[in-house]
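Summary for the lay section of the report: proteins are chains of building blocks that fold into shapes. Here we show the chain for Suppressor of fused and then a coded description of the shape we predicted for it.
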Amino acid sequence: MNETDHQNVGHCIRSPRPLSEVSYIPQTLPAGLAALYMLCKRIYPDQCNPLQATTVLKYWLGGPDPLDYISMYNNPGDRMIGIPPHWHYISFGLSDLHGDGRVHNISNDQNGPSGFGFELSFRLLKDPSDPSPPTWPARVMQTLAKYVFKTGNTLYAGDHVSWHCGLDGSESRLQHILMAEDPQLQVTVTPHGLVRFVQIVGVCLEELQAVQRWNGPGVLQILKRSSVTGGSWLITNMRRGESMFDVDPSVHDEIADGIKTEGSNLCGISAICSWEEINTIGDDSVEHSMQKLQIINNSRTSNDDANETDGELSELTQKQFLENIHLSFNLEAGLLLPFVLKGRIRHGRHFTFKGATGNATITFVAPSVAGTLVSDDKPFVAQGSWLHVLLPNSFLDIMESSLKFLHEPFTESLPKTINWPDRNLSITINPEKS
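The coded shape description reads as follows.
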């Protein structure tokens, strides 16, 4: 279930940009590819043949990398508006380049998405000692593209990815990703549909956590305020040692106020977790496990949320009303639990821990959430491997108090189990697997 509430973050999202329509498409190239090349040529008219990473064996021929090409442009920046020189990477392959069905389904609707409807970009601050663009961003792009092709989940500005290592393989503090709109590449009409450009932005752990606990668009606006954290074009500096909190400590209070008044627009993650029904008569239990995946937040409108939830519910047929539930989470997921309660449940929303493989799913819901399976007298309901857990308002203060140990820096010994016997609920927080 990939969804996000947008009603509280509309002020953070920029107004839609005009569409750029390609009036001339060279006949020597596939039409979709030529349209994107023409867009790039208008921005970089003096770089008709940029350095390019290409796949040796194309994806439709059985190759492992979905992106046919990744172009690397030399952007001189603009000192007048505080834009430093940087390398600009642009992908080709998430959208439909060929229009003949070899990769994407054929579409004759120019107003619909081309392929997945977007391409990736990345802006990397130039290192004076490196006269040519490094190629590691191409590997990051290919990895993200593989995720999209595997899951079908598209990326939007405000989405995030938990990467857990330096994006360039170094000891850099920037070990996670936040997605933004590319400031130069406009939504483009191609012969095979519309293409957006989603820019990769390197962020540190504290900034990723702010996204998870509040929202991506809000954090993007904060990052844009300082050249240290990327400036208005969100240029990634892999040598950056300061977080946005180091640059401006008042951001702590700004985000805390945002969580209190707006809640969080993160509605689900993938993580290591499981649930089981505890059999109070015997020792038997039924356990459902999940594999650890990167955390990705897909942006959707509230209407999309309702439609997607209804669609998933309709695919499942058999309900089980359970009496006594035990939930288990890895530490990374567990550290989010207090913010799930504060930023989601207290604001009348839901939150889901889900595996992309279709195994166990746990959804916490507030009493005001419509279309769920739970009720006051049946707080635990499972459909297949999907468990719904109702958290009534009267229980939130008690639960938050019990979970106060989930703060950073984390010093508790694990595993640690919290029991609420009057609620027939228990939660275990497990250490991360090495």
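Put simply, here is one thing we learned. Confidence is low (pLDDT under 50) at residues 1-26, 282-287, 289-316.
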